[in-house]
Design a protein that fits this description.
CATH class of chain A: Alpha Beta
Shape of chain A: globular
Strand content of chain B: 15-25%
Oligomer: heterodimer
Distance between the termini of chain A: 26 Å
CATH architecture of the largest domain in chain B: Alpha-Beta Complex
Number of domains of chain A: 1
Number of helices of chain B: 16
Strand content of chain A: 35-45%
Distance between the termini of chain B: 40 Å
Structural class of chain B: alpha+beta
Largest sheet of chain B: 9 strands, antiparallel
Largest sheet of chain A: 6 strands, mixed
Order of helices and strands of chain A: HHHEEHEEEE
Number of strands of chain B: 25
Structural class of chain A: alpha+beta
Shape of chain B: globular
């Protein structure tokens, strides 16, 4: 992180979104099967470019983060491939739905496998509850006119129950090759 | 000036007999598709451009402390940018003088020396050979007149570090020419008169010839089309800057450099920080610091905003982002991009990081679409007919500004023509 930025008291830096809050015990009330089913559904909606269905999974305080250089530095002071809050997720979806987001028009053909799902713990959220933190491996095969690309990574998710439904509050995808140059990532990883 | 629309037969001259290869391939109003696809031309570009002229490599702020180092790319050369104990910045070629291994493995760090993992040869961060194990095999210590390779000339301007692999040639300041003023303009937006490029780099692999990028950076004709999707959903006024009615100009700065000068538009609005899409009350600490630093001139600086300039062959300053374009092969290059950070920039710095993440890099809502165009362009020019790319837009309405630079309207291909003039002069030089 930039020393220069640290010295700017007028713009206090919030804690890192990944590990800025303490990791708590796995909260009660979560079954592995329902969690996995949720992850598979999220993956399928992304694979099939179902933008409305995918966007509806998110909470209002969503964070969708794809860093560079391993786990990444602080996303407010260093660049990331994606660091979207709920509003920017919405903008991203509106853009692609114009049909003229050329990086994704025509859309990629995609299929991904989610595996190695682990319950990691809990993280206190701004609503006074505790989100379930899980992580999983992802391997996604993308086909576009430019060629085929195999994307691999470790995804950390935070899930929350909102009005009885599982919602996605946080998703961080650490791509295996994020220390190298990567091609256009136009689809939802 | 008189505006006479030239007929295609005037500007698209027939192939000149007896001219150089590049006379035939590069004409005033068109360039040949093989310039983007021929591996022998790419090999010649490496020799005559990338290994000769000044190439942007990085920024001094990436190695702020004594003994800091960071790995960088200069075309096909893996270089280590170091800061020695005297504070001087070096560009070492990452190759051991013994067996040719890469000496430095880490991407960045702090060390006064590097040790080759193969046989333990060690080098100072200036490239000087410090020692080798079992030295009796060489007749003792300090017997070998060897060292790591070095980029022959290293110079910086406002902290931007450039390297030239040629021992001789124009100085960096001569090479930058009028583009210096654009870098100065960027730096002038820092209350401390200094920028840093320490927010990390995105690395975007692009299956396209590097020249499509260099040409596109000041092509004011494409934004409304390629970026209409994001301008539309965000209500961004950027598109209007590149409309047919815009008062902005495209300027050939000479030496292959060009800019989209948006100041005429911003001067018309006369609203400080409009260039950044904000208002002074939303960035009060920054505005106060600028007024403190610049007094009455602060408003003018904050009205006119940051430059949009392509510096030949590979440095693109897009207002708040800096791009470093490096070729990999005739049909592949890498775009490295980062957010500009103003020293003393207060709340503006985090906003610039956030805007840059949204705009550039592999998932950027602007640059991913540009990159899609570069890649489709590369596939397109491999087709056999019509062979040529047309660069005549605005040729008939160019004029010369008060400083002697050729200018066109916001959407004219004046910058591209400047690029090709300079490119041709370099490629026609002796090997």
């Amino acid at each position: 992180m930039s020393v220069m930025t640290q010295q700017q008291g007028d713009a206090a830096l919030p804690p890192r979104p990944d590990n800025g809050a303490e990791l708590l015990e796995v909260p009660d009330g979560w079954e592995a099967r329902e969690v996995e089913q949720f992850l598979y559904r999220e993956a399928r909606l992304a694979d099939e470019n179902d933008y409305d269905g995918w966007e509806a999974l998110w909470t209002d305080d969503a964070i969708y983060w794809v860093p560079v250089d391993g786990e990444g530095d602080h996303p407010r002071t260093t660049v990331s491939i994606i660091f979207d809050n709920r509003s920017r997720i919405s903008t991203r979806m509106k853009q692609v739905k114009t049909g003229k987001r050329y990086a994704q028009a025509p859309p990629s053909n995609l299929r991904r496998i989610i595996g190695n799902v682990e319950f990691i713990g809990g993280r206190a959220n701004a609503e006074g509850g505790v989100d379930l933190e899980i992580s999983a491996n992802v391997l996604a095969f993308e086909s576009r006119p430019r060629g085929n690309t195999l994307w691999g990574g470790r995804t950390t998710y935070r899930l929350r129950r909102v009005d009885g439904q599982i919602r996605l509050a946080y998703k961080k995808v650490v791509l295996v090759d994020n220390e190298q140059a990567v091609p256009t990532l136009g689809f939802l990883i | 000036m008189t505006a006479v629309v030239p007929s295609p037969s005037d500007v698209v001259a027939e192939v000149q007999e007896g001219g150089s290869r590049y006379d035939r391939l590069i004409q005033p109003a068109r360039v040949h598709g093989t310039l983007y696809t021929d591996p022998s031309i790419f090999a010649e570009e490496l020799r005559k451009i990338w290994h000769r002229t000044w190439v942007f490599v990085g920024h001094e702020s990436e190695v702020p402390q004594v003994n800091d180092y960071v790995r960088k790319q200069l075309a096909d050369q893996d270089v280590v940018m170091t800061r020695d104990k005297e504070g001087e910045v070096h560009l070492l070629i990452n190759r051991c003088a013994h067996r040719g291994l890469q000496v430095c493995d880490d991407k960045a760090g702090n060390s006064s020396s590097f040790r080759c993992p193969y046989h333990g040869w060690t080098y100072r961060n200036t490239g000087e050979l410090l020692g080798y194990p079992y030295n009796k095999g060489y007749g003792g210590k300090k017997q070998l007149p060897l060292g790591m390779g070095k980029v022959a000339r290293v110079a910086s301007y406002q902290g931007f570090v450039f390297g030239s692999l040629a021992e001789e040639g124009p100085s960096l300041e001569e090479h930058l020419g009028a583009a210096k003023g654009e870098i100065d303009r960027l730096v002038g937006l820092s209350p401390e008169g200094k920028v840093s490029l320490d927010a990390g780099w995105l690395r975007h692999k692009t299956r396209s010839n590097w020249k499509f990028l260099a040409e596109n950076e000041t092509d004011g004709y494409h934004p409304q089309f390629v970026h209409g999707s994001i301008f539309g959903v965000t209500g961004s006024p950027i598109g209007e800057l590149y409309s047919d009615n815009s008062t902005a100009v495209t300027r050939n700065l000479g030496d292959g450099h060009s800019e989209n000068d948006l100041r005429p538009e911003f001067r018309g609005f006369a609203e400080p920080m409009r260039w950044f899409g904000t208002t002074p009350d939303r960035v009060p600490h920054y505005v106060a610091a600028m007024k403190e630093a610049h007094g009455d001139a602060a408003d003018r600086v904050m009205i006119e905003g940051a430059p949009h300039v392509m510096i030949f062959p590979n440095l693109f300053i897009a207002e708040i982002q800096v791009f470093n374009i490096q070729p990999v092969a005739v049909g592949e290059c890498v775009q490295y991009s980062t957010a500009v950070q103003f020293d003393g920039g207060h709340e503006l710095n985090m906003r610039m990081v956030s805007q840059s993440i949204g705009s550039v890099g592999p998932a950027g809502m602007l640059l991913a679409d540009d990159t899609e165009m570069y890649e489709r362009n590369q596939r397109g020019v491999a087709m056999a007919d019509p062979e040529w790319l047309d660069v005549r837009r605005g040729l008939h309405r160019e004029s010369v500004d008060e400083n002697g630079f050729t200018i066109g309207t916001a959407t004219d291909e004046t910058g591209m023509r400047g690029f090709w003039n300079h490119y041709k002069s370099l490629m026609e030089a002796e090997d």
